[in-house]
Design brief:
- This protein is an all-alpha fold and about 160 residues long.
- The chain has six helices and no strands.
- Helix 3 packs antiparallel against helix 4.
- The longest helix has about 35 residues.
- It is elongated and about 55 Å long.
């Protein structure tokens, strides 16, 4: 029995979390600099970016599993463009997560705060990369008919 593909349900999680990362980063930076929160509060950024990374990896795996089915309807080039953009997003999430965790090893307070500011700015880059992957995925669905295999199988 055919079911709805898992990939479309999963892709919204890392994109949604990516929207929160710059806000969370700058909010934590501000609270740490003001002394409202201890430096260990930055662990929230590590956890949330790690959650985004985990959901992105899950979405990527689900997309890869469904790729062959879509190749009958959509050009391999269009699928490849979306896949490349999604891989870039996932790599950037991994870098952000690892670098956010690495910030804890900076002993000098000025370096720690600078790293938090740079990482918070970097979260905007991660978001932009995620939006590019989402746009290319949206083109597959809305412009190129990626939902056609589901319709052909009479899946509502």
């Amino acid at each position: 029995m055919d079911t709805l593909p898992l990939h479309p349900a999963l892709v919204h999680l890392p994109i949604g979390i990516a929207f929160l990362l710059p806000l969370l980063g700058f909010g934590l930076l501000f609270a740490v600099v003001r002394g409202w929160l201890p430096r260990r509060a930055w662990a929230v950024m590590v956890i949330v970016s790690g959650l985004a990374l985990g959901t992105a990896l899950s979405a990527q795996k689900a997309g890869h599993d469904e790729e062959e089915r879509l190749e009958a309807v959509i050009s391999k080039d269009a699928i490849h463009e979306h896949e490349e953009a999604a891989e870039q997003f996932t790599v950037l999430l991994g870098v952000l997560t690892a670098a956010s965790a690495g910030a804890f090893f900076l002993r000098r307070e000025v370096l720690f705060r600078t790293a938090l500011a740079v990482l918070s700015l970097g979260a905007f880059g991660v978001l932009g990369s995620g939006l590019l992957a989402a746009r290319k995925g949206g083109e597959l669905v809305y412009r190129l008919g990626a939902c056609a295999p589901a319709k052909a199988a009479n899946v509502p």
